[in-house]
Amino acid sequence: MIQVEDLKKYYGSIRGVERVTLHVKQGEIFGFVGPNGSGKTTMIRTLLGLISKDGGSAKLFGKEVQIGDPDLNKDIGYMPSESYFFNEMKVKDIISFFKSMRTVDDSYLSMLIEQLDLDLLKKFGSLSFGNKKKVGLVVALMHQPKLLILDEPTSGLDPLIQSRFLEIITNERKRGTTVLLSSHVLSEIEKVCDRVALIKDGVILFIKTMDEIRQNEHKRLLVTPNHHDLILEGLSFIQDFDQSSQYAYVGDVNLLVQFLAKYKFIDINIRNVGLEEIFSIYYQKEDVK
Fold it and tell me: Which ranges in the chain are annotated with CATH 3.30.70.250?
């Protein structure tokens, strides 16, 4: 569905993306994660034919992306990080405008409007940031495209609407829709994505399935009193907290427990590491495969 090979884009001397390669399969939700300025939006805009590339290949539906290709865009639903429409138009007129250019199932459109709690009678310019995002989501989803490219789609939405939106795209996946989801909200990446790519400074650090990330069993270990001599494969010292020592551990937790049983501690605390902490660990590494 999406095939990117050695994609390169620079803005003068400033790197946008460098040697980006990723393949997104039909019917999967693919998470695209990275800090601000990491290259996520550059890649998305290249895929949409909004900017030209400096090197490499970017294909959608097996066809090389060209700037302004109408045949390509008709099968795509795009949600930018911010929604910009005509401020003086009412929401219902914006919806009607885009509906007139597409084949839209009225019952599906009504479901979107109801689930996202869209106020059709207000002028777009009077809406809050979150309500403007809702309009953008409906416009992106209304024609049930084969491919959804969503850039920070839930920022500004309240928790209930976020949950409903995630349910909608999960149902779209069941229908065979492919979703490229760029987001800072790692909890939603964890909930709905099949695979995730982590990008930093324009370079992909890794592409893994969510199962692969979970199977690594990232743990944090806090032992009291201080011990700096705990040596086990996958166990690494981080720092001291008062009378306690903190370690990171990746591996079989049963092996860790067996190892710790050889020592005498006042207290031991072992906890799972959240997705945000896992990605933070990767960000701090120079080279990740």
Answer: 217-271
